Amino acid sequence: MTASKLVLTVDEKSDGLRLDACIASLSELSRSAASRLCEEGRVTVNGKTAEKKQAVRVGDTIEIDLPEVKESEAQAEDLPIEIVYEDSDLLVVNKPQGMVVHPAPGNEAGTLVNALLHHCGDSLSGVGGVKRPGIVHRIDKDTSGLLVVAKNDETHKALSEKLKGHKINRIYTAIAVGNFKDDEGTVDAPIGRHPTDRKKMAIVKDPNRRARNAVTHWKVLARGTFGGQNFTLLRCELETGRTHQIRVHLASLGHPILGDPVYGGNHTKFESTHKSLILGQALHAGELHFTHPKTGKEMTFTAEPPKEFCELEKMLFE
Question: Active-site residue numbers?
């Protein structure tokens, strides 16, 4: 694959940031990756080569020459995956619970990317890099549901822009522990790395710590009681898409997702007595809405939760 160029425009929220920090806030690149590209002379601001420490201003145009994408280190594997939709530009996949999206240390095989490489061959965008070809957005290993995957770089860039502009609607169904006082609400709280556990995310209130704005809209679908414990079935719509966002936000309300081993939803009597149904957090990405970047057609996809989730729902809310 050939090298490509990424063009960014500095917005009001990024005014005054260091160049590398601004690139990280406006793109999928990490700050360390942005810093490295600056050091390599691959970044210009308003047409002039810029250093990573340079402050940017509203309206500045940042151009990044992305290096040629290397062949993916992931190996194609003939794994069963549910393709909900596919055309020459993209595909929508219903990821099963328990499948990792892309290879990482400890999970080099058996991932969605391995399956996609087998299904698509060379027809996947390289924008995601050597470990994430075609991947526009992710969901956690133990979260099931819908993902859109790009089959070429142009589509990947267009979908990424839609994602940043909140023009891809991702709606989840969750089973939370406890009874919500209100019928609906919004959590607007920035998320960053946990201060002591680097594997966890957390709401960050300290302005001196790095965090990204995160907004989750939730609505109660049903309330139930089982064995003297309360549970709530929720519809959660993402306005942003941070790592573990719904899990962190619901836990911050005192209502972690049932079965969540990281944020506290696995400490219920129900979980201990129904382990066969609790395969991870009870969270399913069941709806996906976006405009096709090539055809302009409105695309709407839905996917039923996995069998175990449906059994939990029936036990707790019927």
Answer: 140
